[in-house]
Write a structure and sequence with these properties.
By secondary structure, this protein is an alpha+beta fold. Helix content is 26%, strand content 12%. It has helices at 18-21, 24-43, 83-87, 129-133, 160-163, 181-191, and strands at residues 66-68, 93-99, 112-120, 139-141, 157-158.
Length: 192
């Protein structure tokens, strides 16, 4: 059947030479490309890095692992208002609120606190909306830490044990509301 546009080309298949049948031109062409890349990498700066010994610098707008901040007296800032969970587009945050009891004033800043606070890092898209929604400045995404790789799915659900900032002022995140050196010294003497 002849095409209507008459643009079809009739091709004839040329017989292959002995070298083409042995794939010699293709083998030498592939080897030459490999050698070009080998000598280019040996003479120029490498584009890859030796991770994890070397790490690339983070972008100034990088949002990494979450942290629940403490106030200047070492109490948890989170009041379990739930605004971070409502603002989360991936619905990665869940929490259970509780009432503070007598004698827990040094642990929790407000009368209401998060008994349970969990972030599913497999669902989180690190958009930072939880950080923006928090009226108490309790949730921050650290600029210097990433969620480490894990083998089990349940290890990606971060509870308060991994999210709450350590009491020691020297171990706290570099981002968010920072303690002044005087406040850090005062807190260090109180916790010692």
């Amino acid at each position: 059947m002849e095409s209507l546009s008459k643009r079809a080309k009739v091709l004839t298949k040329k017989p292959m030479t002995l070298a083409e049948r042995a794939y010699l031109p293709a083998i030498f062409q592939g080897l030459s490309i490999t050698m070009q890349h080998f000598f280019r990498a040996a003479t120029k700066k490498q584009v890859t890095i030796r991770y994890p010994e070397e790490t690339r610098p983070f972008s100034p707008v990088f949002r990494g692992l979450h942290v629940l901040k403490r106030d200047e007296k070492g109490r948890e800032r989170c009041t379990a208002c739930g605004l971070c969970a409502v603002a989360c587009p991936a619905e990665a945050i869940t929490m259970v609120a509780g009432e503070r009891k007598k004698g827990e004033e040094n642990l929790y800043r407000e009368e209401k606190y998060a008994v349970s606070y969990e972030i599913n890092m497999l669902r989180c898209i690190f958009c930072g909306l939880c950080e923006e929604a928090c009226p108490k400045a309790a949730v921050y995404l650290q600029a210097d830490k990433m969620a480490p790789p894990r083998f089990e799915r349940d290890e990606f659900i971060y509870g308060k044990d991994r999210l709450v900032e350590p009491v020691a002022p020297d171990l706290r995140s570099k981002r968010g509301i920072q303690l002044t050196p005087e406040q850090a010294d005062t807190l260090r003497t109180q916790t010692a």
